[in-house]
Amino acid sequence: IVSYSRSPWRKLPPGPRRMPIIGNTLQLLDKSWLRSDDCKERFKEVMYLDAAGKPVIVFNSFNSAFDVLERRANNYSDRPRFIMAQDVLSKGLLLAFMNYDGHFRRLNRVAQAALTKTAVRDYHPILTKETTIL
Asked: CA angle at residue 98 from 97 to 103, to 5 degrees?
C-alpha cells in the first residue's frame, strides 16, 4: 500500500486500460476513437496513453492544454536527455544540451552578457590578432 501511494503511476491522469508491452498503441492508431465523445466523457479533460513504452498525454480541450502548456510550462518543459552529448562530450557544460534548471539559467545569463553588441566589439582586436597568427 505504501509503495502504491508513492508510485509515479499514481500521479498520471486517467486513461484506457493498457495491454502488456504494446500499451495503448492500437488505440492510438484509431484516430476516430480519440476524437469520439465517449472518450471525452470517460477520461474528461486530460488522458494518459502508453505508446509501446513512450508516455503520451492527450488533451481533450483547448483550456486544459493552455493551462498546462502555457501557465505551468516551467514545471513540464525540459530538453530530452542526451547522455553522450551532455555527460561524455561536454561534461554537462554545453548550453545546447543542458536541462532547463537554475544552473542553465545562470550560465545562459552569463553567455547573454558576453555576447552583446558592445561585448563583441571588445573581442575584435583579439580576433584580429589570432587570425594573423594563423
From this structure: 160
Map grid coordinates 502555457 to a residue. Answer: 70
Question: Per-residue pLDDT tens for 14-69?
Answer: 777 777 888 777 777 777 777 777 777 777 888 888 888 788 888 888 888 888 77
Q: What is the pLDDT of residue 129?
A: 92
Look at 24-28, 120-124, 130-134 and tell me which has the smallest mean pLDDT.
Answer: 24-28
Q: Cell 476524437 sits at which residue?
A: 35
Return phi, psi of residue 14, to 5°. -70, 160
Question: Residue 43: exposed, middle, or buried by beta-carbon count in 10 A (0-12, 13-18, 19+)?
Answer: middle
Q: Rounded to the nearest 5°, which phi and psi values hold at 5? A: -70, -25
H/E element, 121? helix 117-133
Amino acid at 101: D
Q: How far apart are the first and last CA of the chain?
A: 69
DSSP 9-77: GGGSPP-PPPBTTTBTHHHHH-HHHHHSHHHHHHH-SEEEEEETTEEEEEESSHHHHHIIIIITHHHH-
